[in-house]
């Protein structure tokens, strides 16, 4: 049943739909390319300043621009796609209600391709073009140059926009002495998606790799978002002429210089005599829904967990002389990478020997950020019969809120329907949900009103609620996970991710037969993404994942390696 606020919201939206207003935009673009019909999502973008193009000003923060979108799938009007007051937008839902004034105006087409899934469904989705599923940067997308104009929604006016610009291709990274790039076609994913699908990785080779052909190496999987190249590794000293840039996130002047200093420090540590000789990989598993797959099998994304574990990783270990056994593989990462590290360890307990999960995405859906999807009726509002309070989604370390769950989801809805925004809430839904009858992810809640679907929530629990799965299956998998689970989170995580970690800790520390024998730790007033380092601020510790976790992994290997295991060939 809808709560009162949800009813009011639905009525308001319905009223906006029937009143189109007088201001309208007609966006035109080439309808054919390579003999095929051009399809996608047509976006209208408005901004108040020209510091950046409007397509780069859409955010959940307070300084966002405006975005309005419609699906352009199938034949479209010859004169162009119309966007008027009936089109859903963010953060002002209707063009009828935008303030009178001057705007920078831009149009964009986020192209979709056709996929004939193994399930028999046909879906239209954006194929990643090596940019990591960023609609405003995706090569091949069409857009217009920004134009400054005066807009008054109460006045009769039709604005015509032609998308005559094309985002250019992205050059692939080059191999170096230490960093190699590999790409394989996945049989499992190709079968699911009905077309060739690929997995890639950036491999950081140890010092002395060529000089020690007899050595076989442990494998460290550094999970995270789409990497264009291996991140955080620089063989040259910082650029003395680099123009310093201010980081608002960390309140740090010249943070770009600091990043280069730490990248160079990793190189110096990596090549020093005492640093462990291991392989480190960052995986490229971008897909039609997001910049990575969350590294698990999914009804909507396909068997990425199996493809990574049983296709990609064995290929890398064979090509680069990995040991190739579960005791010599480790997982670590932060945020999305933190969830992936823990989830992969849970779902493949024998294939990996430990995970170090920093600031993981929600690992207990009773604390799905600030929602309990099993008990709450609405994701956007909580309260009683007479008062509703908006659910926060993002805060700073003082608790000051700058975005709500409703606002972030409405931004995604304006950018793309059917979980196609390429953003955070949509990818959680795409990974965790069952496939709907139309071939797209079944929504966990109504994207406009926030009403939660209990059946979908139950599916999430049984398949992806990591705390629930551990508790349900501990008698079976507990011994395989003993000593392997390590979780870290700041207690002022910007996305409230610490709440789920508390619940996970409560379960883990209550385990018996066996005791989990791992680690859960918190950073005092630390924001996203604290990773267990009490000696440095977040701005620096986030640049040291490899130095932090590789020595811990090696220490565990030495304690847990099976009799006769190779603990010497790579120790030179």
Question: What is shown here, in short?
Answer:
The protein is α+β, with helices and mostly antiparallel strands.
Topology overview:
Blueprint: H1 4-18, E1 23-28, E2 32-33, E3 36-37, E4 39-47, E5 66-72, E6 81-83, E7 89-90, E8 101-116, E9 122-125, E10 142-143, E11 147-151, E12 157-162, E13 165-166, E14 179-185, H2 187-193, E15 198-204, E16 219-223, H3 255-270, E17 279-284, E18 297-298, E19 302-303, H4 304-319, E20 329-334, H5 336-347, E21 355-358, E22 381-383, E23 388-390, E24 392-395, E25 401-404, H6 405-415, H7 424-432, H8 454-464, H9 466-481, E26 485-490, H10 498-508, E27 519-523, H11 538-541, H12 545-560
Parallel strand pairs: 1-12, 16-17, 16-20, 20-21, 21-26, 26-27
Antiparallel strand pairs: 1-6, 2-3, 4-5, 4-8, 5-7, 8-9, 8-10, 8-11, 10-13, 14-15, 15-17, 18-19, 22-23, 24-25
Keywords:
disordered N terminus; Immunoglobulin-like; 8-stranded antiparallel β-sheet; 12 helices; Rossmann fold; 23% strand; alpha+beta; 572 residues; 25% helix; globular
Provide the domain count.
3
Give the fraction of residues assigned to helices: 25-40%
Strand content: 15-25%
**What is the CA–CA distance across the termini?**
65 Å
What structural class should be given to the helix and strand makeup? alpha+beta
| Main beta sheet strand tally, sense and closure | 8 strands, antiparallel
Task: Describe what this molecule looks like in 3D.
This protein is α+β, with helices and mostly antiparallel strands. The protein is built from twelve helices and 27 strands. The chain has three domains: 4-166, Sandwich (Immunoglobulin-like), CATH 2.60.40; 179-363 and 466-488 and 545-560, Rossmann fold, CATH 3.40.50; 366-462, no CATH class. 25% of the residues lie in helices and 23% in strands. Helix 5 (336-347) packs across helix 9. The longest helix is centred in the middle third of the chain and has 16 residues, at 255-270. The protein starts with a helix and ends in a 12-residue tail after the last helix. Residues 1-19 have low confidence and may be disordered.
């Amino acid at each position: 049943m809808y709560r009162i606020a949800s009813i009011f919201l639905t009525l308001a939206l319905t009223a906006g739909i029937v009143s189109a207003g007088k201001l309208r935009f007609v966006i035109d673009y080439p309808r054919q390319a390579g003999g095929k019909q051009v399809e996608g999502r047509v976006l209208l973008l408005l901004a108040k300043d020209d510091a950046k193009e409007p397509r780069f000003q859409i955010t959940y923060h307070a300084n966002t621009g405006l975005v309005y979108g419609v699906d352009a799938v199938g034949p479209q009007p010859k004169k162009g796609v119309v966007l008027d007051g009936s089109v859903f937008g963010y953060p002002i839902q209707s063009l009828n209600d935008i303030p009178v004034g001057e705007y920078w105006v831009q149009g964009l087409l986020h192209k979709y391709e056709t996929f004939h899934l193994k399930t028999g469904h046909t879906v239209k989705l954006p194929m990643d073009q090596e940019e990591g599923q960023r609609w405003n940067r995706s090569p091949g997308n069409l857009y217009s140059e920004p134009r400054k104009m005066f807009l008054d929604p109460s006045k009769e006016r039709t604005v015509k926009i032609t998308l005559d610009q094309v985002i250019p291709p992205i050059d692939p990274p080059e191999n170096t002495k230490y960093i190699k790039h590999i790409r394989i076609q996945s049989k499992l994913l190709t079968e699911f998606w009905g077309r060739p699908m690929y997995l890639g990785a950036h491999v950081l080779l140890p010092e002395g790799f060529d000089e020690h052909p007899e050595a076989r190496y442990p494998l460290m999987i550094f999970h995270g978002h789409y990497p264009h190249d291996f991140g955080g590794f620089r063989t040259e000293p910082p650029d003395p002429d680099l123009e310093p840039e201010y980081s608002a996130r960390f309140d740090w002047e010249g943070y770009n210089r600091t990043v280069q200093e730490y990248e160079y420090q990793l190189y110096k540590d990596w090549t020093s005599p005492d640093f462990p000789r291991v392989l480190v990989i960052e995986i490229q598993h971008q897909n039609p829904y997001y910049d990575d797959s969350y590294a698990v099998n999914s009804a909507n994304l396909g068997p990425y967990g199996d493809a990574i574990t049983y296709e990609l990783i064995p290929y890398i270990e064979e090509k680069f002389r990995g040991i190739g056994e579960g005791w010599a593989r480790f997982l670590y990462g932060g945020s999305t990478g933190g969830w992936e590290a823990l989830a992969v360890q849970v779902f493949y307990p024998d294939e990996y020997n430990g995970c170090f999960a920093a600031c993981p995405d929600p690992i207990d859906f009773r604390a799905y950020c600030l929602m309990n999807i099993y008990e709450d009726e609405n994701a956007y509002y909580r309260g009683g019969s007479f008062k509703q309070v908006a659910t926060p989604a993002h805060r700073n370390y003082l608790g000051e809120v700058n975005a709500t769950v409703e606002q972030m989801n409405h931004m995604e809805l304006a950018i793309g329907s059917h979980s196609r925004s390429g953003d955070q809430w949509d990818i959680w839904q795409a990974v965790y949900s069952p496939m709907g009858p139309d071939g797209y992810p079944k929504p966990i809640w109504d994207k406009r009103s926030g009403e939660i679907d209990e059946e979908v929530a139950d599916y999430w629990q049984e398949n992806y609620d990591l705390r629930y799965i551990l508790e349900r299956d501990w008698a079976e998998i507990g011994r395989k996970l003993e000593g392997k689970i390590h979780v870290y989170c700041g207690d002022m995580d910007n996305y409230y991710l610490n709440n789920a970690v508390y619940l996970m800790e409560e379960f883990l520390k209550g385990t018996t037969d066996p005791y989990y024998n791992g680690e859960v730790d918190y950073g005092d007033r630390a924001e996203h993404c604290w990773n267990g380092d009490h000696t440095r601020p977040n701005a620096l510790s986030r640049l040291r994942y490899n130095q932090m976790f590789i020595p811990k992994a090696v220490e565990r290997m030495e304690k847990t390696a099976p009799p006769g295991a190779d603990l010497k060939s790579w120790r030179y």
